[in-house]
From TrEMBL:
A Pfam family: Aminotran_3
Name listed for the protein in its UniProt record: Aminotransferase
Family matches, as NCBIfam families: PRK07483.1 (NF005685)
Keywords: Pyridoxal phosphate
Residue ranges of the region described as Disordered: 1-40
A GO CC annotation given for this chain: cytosol
Compositionally biased tracts (Polar residues): 28-38
Keyword tRNA processing (UniProt): no
InterPro entries (alphabetical): Aminotrans_3, PyrdxlP-dep_Trfase, PyrdxlP-dep_Trfase_major, PyrdxlP-dep_Trfase_small
Source species: Cudoniella acicularis
GO MF annotation list: pyridoxal phosphate binding; transaminase activity
Entry annotated with the keyword Protease: no
Family per similarity comment: Belongs to the class-III pyridoxal-phosphate-dependent aminotransferase family.
Coiled-coil blocks: none
Length: 492
């Protein structure tokens, strides 16, 4: 069976016969010395993530599984990068995309035209907030969403006063909000910022993250920890001058930068109260943690702390189309309506009908099949199993997360929380072992967890369709990988 035929079967909702899996080969036109085509590829024309690595070739996917050119079947325990929330090859979403393409208008210039499918998606999203947000700005990626949010936050104040002194943004250390210059400027991830520091905005200021594992004092209650964080934010407002601050940006659950670190209960409300006390905006980045990933459709809904601006992405379209969005509150919409009447911003590929068709179908499926309940149920089971099976491992320092969004932080010394030397690349070792032919499962690695350079974690973010049996498999692999990696490292 050809790779294209395998991919076609996956798109149609079928799984290739097991007897054919060994024969799968990529159709890339290049052969090895023995005449067979390669099953991994070091790219020749694409500027890939790592130019020194060869990557396994994927030829199809269905549900939780990815089919590789070497005949392997890999369990996707991370939904890519916490994106493929419905799994791979969902026939309803594929049909919705196909139907929109068949209309002849997968793309429309948003400067000239409107689209019913786009409006329907926006209505779905606003209704999902119980009306606490008012409008939706649709774009193509999480980084673009952050760029739009910080520009819109500035324009909110500019509408009433073009000479507004509000020019400062407060964000958090150990945060990651995207790779464009503006989004990276807001981010606090030291290593990712380092090459571009001369380019980054000098009006972004950082306070500490809400990172209980490394920051909570012995015996400190949630209330005391939150009060300390609120006092730090208040002090930053006073340092900058409250009248100069546009707003505060944070992730309700920190994703890639720290590995699924949830806010301590009461933290989001306390931070919002500080912002609103000074007339500043409260901005939440839910690109990774939102759209059901943490057990509620929007992560802020667990404590009912609605923001002024909210970014979403990843699980919005489930990987079937590149799409992200900014959800905008009434007060910001009203400032535009009563002022210029427009957002001074725009992208060529914004509010595309084909993007909206995919995202709308993803959201309908989640709602109609009550997938948030499964996220909560399987997430609680995943937490219990992880803590039971690897929680006492001497190199697993912390297990944290919410819903189907869990991180494991690795440490050299459990008592002192000392991280490993970054040169050991522990998180990458765990990932490479997990994805090898022995285990055939994805884990999402991250570094800089402790101080921006040192510190290792991996993320588990399985699909919303996963079952108890799938969770059992994930935890079995995690235990096997962790034990093997650290046994091999014992002498290092």
């Amino acid at each position: 069976m050809s790779p294209s035929a395998v991919a076609d079967l996956a798109l149609q909702g079928q799984e290739p016969a097991a007897s054919h899996s060994k024969a799968i080969r990529p159709s890339n036109g290049h052969s090895n010395s023995n005449g067979t085509k390669p099953t991994t590829k070091r790219t020749e024309f694409l500027l890939d993530r790592n130019l020194h690595k060869s990557f396994p070739l994927v030829v199809g996917g269905k549900g939780n599984l990815l089919y590789l050119a070497d005949g392997r079947t890999v369990f996707d325990a991370t939904s890519g990068a916490a994106v493929s929330c419905l799994g791979h090859g969902n026939p309803r979403v594929i049909e919705a995309i196909s139907n929109q393409i068949k209309t002849g208008v997968p793309y429309l210039c948003s400067s000239f035209w409107s689209s019913e499918i786009v409006e329907e998606l926006c209505k779905e999203l606003i209704n999902s907030t119980q009306g606490k947000m008012k409008r939706v700005y649709l774009i193509g990626s999480g980084s673009e969403a952050i760029e739009a949010a910080i520009k819109l936050a500035r324009q909110y104040f500019y509408e009433s006063d073009p000479n507004s002194p509000r020019v400062n943004i407060i964000a958090r250390e150990s945060s990651y909000h995207g790779n464009t210059i503006g989004a990276l400027g807001v981010s606090g991830h030291v290593a990712r910022r380092a090459p571009y520091e001369p380019f980054l905005m000098d009006n972004v200021h950082h306070v500490s993250a809400c990172y209980a594992y490394r920051q909570r004092k012995d015996g400190e209650s949630d209330a005391s920890f939150v009060a300390r964080k609120a006092a730090e934010l208040e002090a930053k407002f006073q340092e900058l001058g409250p009248e100069t601050v546009i707003g505060f940006v944070c992730e309700p659950v920190v994703g890639a930068a720290l590995g699924c670190v949830p806010s301590v209960p009461g933290y989001l409300r306390a931070m919002r109260d500080v912002c609103h006390k000074h007339g500043a905006l409260f901005i939440l980045d839910e690109v990774m943690s939102g759209m059901g990933r943490c057990g509620t459709l929007h992560a802020w809904q667990e404590e009912d702390v609605a923001p002024d601006l909210q970014t979403i992405g990843k699980g919005l379209g489930g990987g079937y189309q590149p799409i992200a969005a900014v959800l905008i509150s009434s007060k910001i919409v009203n400032a535009l309506l009563n002022g210029s009447g427009q957002f001074v911003h725009g992208h060529t590929y914004q509010a595309m009908p084909v993007q909206a068709a995919a995202a709308l179908e993803v959201q309908k499926i989640q709602r109609e099949e009550n997938m948030l309940q499964n996220v909560q149920t399987q997430g609680a089971y995943l937490e219990m199993c992880l803590k039971a099976r690897v929680g006492n491992h001497p190199n697993v320092g912390d297990i944290r997360g919410k819903g189907l969004f869990w991180g494991l932080e690795f440490v050299k010394d459990k008592a002192t929380k000392e991280p490993f030397d970054p040169r050991l690349a522990v998180a990458q070792r765990v990932h490479d072992t997990a994805i090898s032919a022995q285990f055939n499962m994805t884990m999402y690695p991250g570094t800089g967890t402790a101080d921006g350079y040192a510190g290792d974690h991996v993320i588990l973010a399985p699909t919303y369709i996963c079952t108890k049996a799938d969770i059992d498999h994930i935890v079995d692999v995690v235990e096997g990988v962790v034990n093997q990696v650290f046994q091999k490292m014992a002498g290092l």
